[in-house]
Amino acid sequence: MHLHHSTLVLAFAAVTVFASHVQAETYPPLDVLLQTETTIIGQQLIYPDGTAQITVAIVSMEPGEVTGWHRHEAPLIAHILSGELTVDYGTDGTRVYREGDTLVEALGSRHNGTNTGEAITRIFVVFAGAADVPNTVSE
User: Fold this and answer.
1) Model confidence over 69-117: pLDDT tens digits?
2) What contacts 24+ positions apart, CB below 8 Å, involve 5-10?
3) Contact at 8 Å (CB) between 72 and 124?
4) What are the start-end ranges of the H helices in the chain?
5) For residues 75 and 107, is the Cβ–Cβ distance under 8 A?
6) Domains detected in the chain
7) Contact 74, 127 (CB under 8 A)
8) Containing H/E element for 64?
């Protein structure tokens, strides 16, 4: 089943509005990890044009491993399952993420991640992209 881009945006907006009005006492209980209209460096969220495509993955990085400079062409939501990740955003600064942190990654902006912890870093990621648009581009 393929969803049109505007359908995905409307569905996302509906979930966001619903989530913002749900209390912990509702059934089922909702533990909101993050609710935002911007990326981690303050950019407004935008979605690529085309046939909507959701990609869900777990990224695993060994201690000292580096992603290399790259950018994302689709919104990426990340939740740090374990470990520590330091991301250099160039002129937008450096941030350190640890187990339990949730973020919307920078969009279209170069950055480089390094596992600066002593153990494997595992990151649950969700890309809200489009079928013909790369989620990640190496630079």
Assistant:
1) 999 999 999 999 999 999 999 999 999 999 999 999 999 999 999 999 9
2) 5/47, 5/48, 5/49, 5/50, 5/51, 5/52, 5/130, 7/52, 8/47, 8/52, 8/128, 9/47
3) no
4) 5-21
5) yes
6) 36-138 (2.60.120.10)
7) yes
8) none
